[in-house]
C-alpha cells in the first residue's frame, strides 16, 4: 500500500498513524518509539507544568530525530461556585478518609499554563502541536504558524471541524463516539448525546465538508480499523487505547490490566473524574458519583478535587476508584512493545489491502 | 470486486447488502426493487397484522422472483401499570386535543401476532426471516429451520451476538450506535449507554467472537461505509436510512424531507415514541416528553398511546410531533430511485477498491 498522502506529507511521517496525546499516560519512550517506527508520537501535555513539558520534550529529542507532537488542552470558561466545591468535597470525604488524604485547594492556572506550553513548543521547535477542548485564539495560532509548527485540531462534529479549518488548523482529528478519554467537544448548545457521533458516521460526513486532511479516531485498534478509516475518506488515524496498553506507555499496571480484561460494554461517558466528559471503564466511583451528575464542578476544578484520590487508588492497584480511560474496543487491546505493535499494524494493513482488491 | 462470500451464498443474493426492515416504512415496491437489483429487500413487518403481512408478501412476490426477507419484532415482557397509562394519557392530552383524537385502548396482542407472522413466513416460503428485540423461542426457530427459512438475528453487543449464534441464527446483524430506528438490544443489566457501541468498535469485536457471518449496520450510507464494513470483517451491510429516503420507500414526505435536511448532530436515542429506545431526529415531542423519561410505559403500550398522534402529525406535514427515525449520517441521505441508489453504491464500491489496492 502507498501511504504517501497529504497527511503524511504535512506531518513528515511514513505511516498515517498518530499516537493520541493521552494526558498523564505518555512517556518519552512511548512517544519516541512511535516516531522512530514512522508514525507520529505525541506528548500528552494536558496536565504538564512548563518545567515538566520542557523535560519531556528534551527526553523525546534525546530518543528520536523523527517528528513528534505535543497535545494541549485549550483553556475554557469554568464557572463554578464555592458551594459546589464544598458539596463535592463532602461527597469525596469517604474516599479521602480511606486513603488518609488532605482536602486540596482549587487553583485555576490553565490559561497561564497553556501560554507557557505554547512558548515551549516554539522554543524547542516541536514539529506538531495538537489541540483538544477547543481552538486557540488567533494570536496563538499566528505565533505557532510563524514558527512553522503544524497544527492539529480536534472535532467531534462537522461544525467543529469547519471551525477548525476556518481557524487555520492544518489537520483535524474526527473524534468518534467510540474514542476513549476526554471528549474534545467544544461547541455549545447540543445535548450531550448529540455530539457522540460514531466514527463510521462522523468521518465521511466530515470529509465531505472540509478541505484539510481528516484523521479518524475512535474504536481504531488494528489494521482493520486503519484501512476502514482510509476507505471512509480519512487520510490517517489517531489511536489512543491501542497505545495505552503498550509496554512503553506510562499508564499504571492496574489501568493496563483492567483494559486488557474489559469488554466493549464496559465503558461509559462520564464527567465525574475531571468535570469534562470522558469515556472510560465503568467502576464503583462512577456509579457512586453519577448520582450527583448535574452537580459536578467543571474542569479543571473536579479534576483537582479528585486528583489525589485517583492517583492513590491507581498506585494501590485499586481499579474501582480511579479513571481508566478506554475506547469501546478493549477486546482488541494488546500488551506489546511499540515496535511489535507497529509491525503488526503494518502487516495487517498490507494483508487487508491484498484481500480487498 | 468479488462479492461472493458466505453471506451472499446463504442469502442467495449478488450483493452483500440488506435493506433494513423498517417497520411502517417499507412498501412492496421498495422491497422488490432492492431484491431485483441483487440485494436483499425486507418487509418491515414489526407492526403488521396477519392479513396485512400476507398481502405484502403476495405483492412482493408479484414484483420479484428474487429472495427477500420479513423483519419481525420478537415479543418481550411488558410490565406496566394502569396508573402509568393514565399519567401518559394526561401528558398526551394536548396533542390529542390539537388533532381532535380519541384516547386509545391499550391492547397487547404481540405474542399472537408474532406466532401468526411466523406461520405466514412458512406458508408463503419467505426465504429470509430477520428478528429484532430478541431471539425467538426454540420451537419457533426449529419450525422455521425445518421450512428452510434463513434466520437473521440482531445484536448490539458481542454477548447478544453469541446468544444469537447459540440459538441457531444463520447470520447476525451488528447494530452499531449510529443506526437509526429501534435499538435491537435485548440483554438486560446494562446501563442504556453501555449498549450503544459504535460500528467501528462493534464489528471487529463481534467478528472475532462468533463464527456465523456478521452484517454491519449503523451509519452506512454509501460505498465508503460498505467497503469499510467489509474491511472491518463484516460479510455485508444492512442499510436503513439510505433506503428510507428512496423514492420507493413508504415513509411520509415530511419524514424524507426532514432527514434530507438534517445534520449528524440532529439525532437522539429516545423511548418517548414507542416505549423502546430508538434513534431519530430530535423534535418538539421528544424535548417535551423527555421530562417523563423514567415514566414512559414500555413497548408496545407507549407505541399504541402515541400512534394516532404521530400518524396524524406526519400526514399533516408536522415534523415536530412524529417520529423521524434516522441514523447519524443524514448528511449522506439522497432522494433516488432504488435502481439508481444501487447502481451508485456498486459504482462507488468498485472505485474504492481500485483506490485502496
Question: Can you describe what's shown?
Answer:
Two copies of one chain form a homodimer. Chain A is α/β, with parallel strands linked by helices. The first copy, chain A, has one domain (6-356): TIM Barrel. Chain A has 14 helices and eleven strands. In chain A, strands 1-9-8-6-5-4-3-2 form an eight-stranded parallel beta sheet. In chain A, helix 3 links the parallel strand 2 (41-44) and strand 3. In chain A, helix 2 (28-36) packs parallel to helix 3, helix 4 runs parallel beside helix 13 (301-315) and helix 9 crosses helix 14. Chain A starts with 5 loop residues before the first helix and ends with a helix.
The helicity of chain A comes to 40-55%
Give me the number of helical elements of chain A.
14
Fourth-level CATH superfamily of chain A: Aldolase class I
Overall pLDDT of chain A: 96
Query: Low-confidence segments of chain A, ≥5 residues, pLDDT <50?
Result: none
Count of all domains of chain A: 1
Shape of chain A: globular
- Mind describing the biggest β-sheet of chain A? 8 strands, parallel
Oligomer: homodimer
Tell me the total number of β-strands of chain A. Answer: 11
What's the helix and strand layout?
Two copies of one chain form a homodimer.
Chain A: H1 6-11, E1 17-19, H2 28-36, E2 41-44, H3 50-63, E3 68-73, H4 82-99, H5 110-123, E4 128-132, H6 138-146, E5 150-155, H7 158-166, E6 171-175, E7 181-182, H8 199-207, E8 214-217, H9 223-231, E9 236-239, H10 241-244, H11 253-260, E10 267-270, E11 278-281, H12 284-289, H13 301-315, H14 338-356
Parallel strand pairs in A: 1-9, 2-3, 3-4, 4-5, 5-6, 6-8, 8-9
Antiparallel strand pairs in A: 7-11, 10-11
